[in-house]
Design brief:
Number of helices: 12
Number of strands: 0
Oligomer: single chain
Structural class: mainly alpha
Largest sheet: none
Distance between the termini: 59 Å
Amino acid sequence: MTTITPAPAYKLAPEREAELLANARKSVRATTAKVWTLRALIVVLWLGSWEIAATYFIDPFFYSRPSEIWARLVQWFTSGTQFGSVWENLGYTVLEAVLGFIIGTIAGIVLGVLLGRSDFLANVFSPFIKGANAVPRIVLAALFILWFGFDISSKVATVVVLVFFAVFFNAFTGAREVDKNVVNNARILGASEGKILRSIVLPSATTWILSSLHTAFGFALIGAIVGEYAGAKKGMGMLIANAQGTFDSAGIYAGMIIVTVVALLAEMLITGAENRLLKWRPTQSKTQSLGI
């Protein structure tokens, strides 16, 4: 009878292991530097070509130019706007977006999970949900102003109707995608419906729900801007609408840039929260979430 002798385990020398780790870190730093250098180069080329085109080829009255937009940003942040401090206007917009985002997210999660777990309720409400989703919700901003006036409530209502459906459909799908074998096994072991909901359904749907929040906050800012654009006393949408009315194209771009920065900061916060809550995900999924 032949005896198979196991191969000896190969072990790196500590010096060799440290050298490999150092080379790996150096490679990561070099790749990161290349990525950021290329990004900076793209931005410089884009802004430079825009500045040159606006100087020699296109009318800056309609298209503005980066130098004028920068001057308008500096003016807004140092001297303020004709409607008060830019920070005050930005605060109104962010407050409207955050309030509507919270309300719309909670409503979307509750109804999405509830209908996702009940075939009967899903069949009853299906045509109403589809019909409401088909309504051009941006138009509702004007209707909400008639109902609630120019105060913050009309903007929050616009944000809620935009955020709700983005979260609802993901929560509904997440609740539907729960492994039925796992649920049935839990029932056999005596788990109550509440326990199944807390321990199986919600954790399973969390990935879907968190993924929807990236899109939902973008919708929240859009809803706040559209609501202010339709009619408001404060806010970035009102500043952009005023810039449009006075043919101030640099002011329009300046407002867009400020809102974009806010959206990127919110995206970073949501991504950080997502990574913290979903540590259990495979490494490949985490890597994919770093992309677009």
